[in-house]
Amino acid sequence: MKILVIRRDNIGDLVCTTPLIAALREKYPQAAIYALVNDYNKDVLDGHPLLDGVYFYTKLKHRGAGDSVVRVIWRKLMTYLALRREHFDYAIVAGSGYPKNAVRLAKAARPKHVISFVSEGTDYDAIVDYPIPFTRDHVFRHEVECLAELLLPLGVTQAPGRLSLPAVVVPDVLARRFSTKQRPVIALHISARERSRVWAVEHFCEVIRTCLSRDVDFLLLWAPGAADDPRHPGDDEKADYIRSQFPEHERLVFYPTRTVKELMAAFSCADLAVCSDGGGLHLAAGSGASVVGLFEHLEKKTKHWYPWQVPHRVLTSGSEQDWQVAHIPVADVVSAIEDLLPHSRVLPADSD
């Protein structure tokens, strides 16, 4: 049997799809299982031992400098042809609601059967011959739990397991520093893609200042680049500000993460991570670190995207009026770190 799992969304979405892949592999150990993703999130599955291969394509909005629209479309067509040659038995469209564009990708692959969520009242494509109704109740359940329902037509009924990431090579600069683990390592991921999820750099400084009285090391992580870069805004200025507040401090390690694999490698060194809701948070959970998650004060966020199956604390401002991450008190983050430190790394990083 050949199975194709399609997930065209962002990094965190794909990380949350890994328990589905693991359940498929457990149920059908002899099956050929492939994934179709985009080149923005493909590193999440690159080299994953549970997959027989990963196909990817480039979204037009993600094309690189000098990469023409025609070239991107041509490569996508070649990917379609390669998928059709596989003659898949099932395509599983992994995603909440009715992921219309992903269903179109499934249609292009021409599998024998397509499994997908469909929203109530949606005129879904006839190619979805195993439609799974997606209701309002799903919004208030974790994404991992929702995706598990897509496997019911294939006879997979067990509760979903942990997130899993492929093994990564830890860069020498981190390996040399953290190989002996003399103290717990707290990773602070200071970048957030959405403005409503940004926590002030001054708040991170206050967390560092408070927690340095404990016997811990800090690993500062951020997306490199200038904040005004229209294509890939970065947080070099924030990192420089933190450096200026703690000049030459021996227990602070600064590490810009240019790629998803670099971020995965960094989180594999951490015992605890502080992250805003987003891809980084799920990569941290996938590495096995405890997680302090900074979320907007929205129930559909905190109940659907919290860190899966690792020790965690989900923090919000607690206010419907001041609902953005910026309003989360520093004291709440410090308290959550103190609560979680004794439980850090009770679950080892999983590379299976």
Structure description:
This protein is α/β, with parallel strands linked by helices and about 350 residues long. It is built from 13 helices and twelve strands. It has helices at about 10-15, 20-25, 70-85, 100-110, 135-140, 145-150, 170-180, 200-210, 235-245, 260-265, 280-285, 300, 330-340, and strands at about 1-5, 30-40, 55, 90-95, 115-120, 130-135, 185-190, 215-220, 250-255, 270-275, 290-295, 310-315. The strands form two sheets. It has a six-stranded parallel beta sheet, sandwiched between helices. A six-stranded parallel beta sheet has the order 9-8-7-10-11-12, with helices on both faces. Helix 8 (about 200-210) runs parallel beside helix 9 and helix 8 (about 200-210) packs across helix 13. It is globular, with a radius of gyration of 21 Å.
| Number of strand elements | 12
Whole-number mean pLDDT = 91
Strand order of the largest sheet: 3-2-1-4-5-6
Strand content: 15-25%
Short description:
Helix content is 32%, strand content 18%.
Write the layout of secondary structure elements.
Elements: E1 2-6, H1 11-15, H2 18-27, E2 32-38, E3 53-57, H3 69-86, E4 90-93, H4 100-109, E5 113-119, E6 130-134, H5 136-139, H6 143-148, H7 172-178, E7 185-189, H8 201-211, E8 217-222, H9 236-245, E9 252-256, H10 260-267, E10 272-276, H11 279-287, E11 290-294, H12 299-302, E12 312-315, H13 330-340
Parallel strand pairs: 1-2, 1-4, 2-3, 4-5, 5-6, 7-8, 7-10, 8-9, 10-11, 11-12
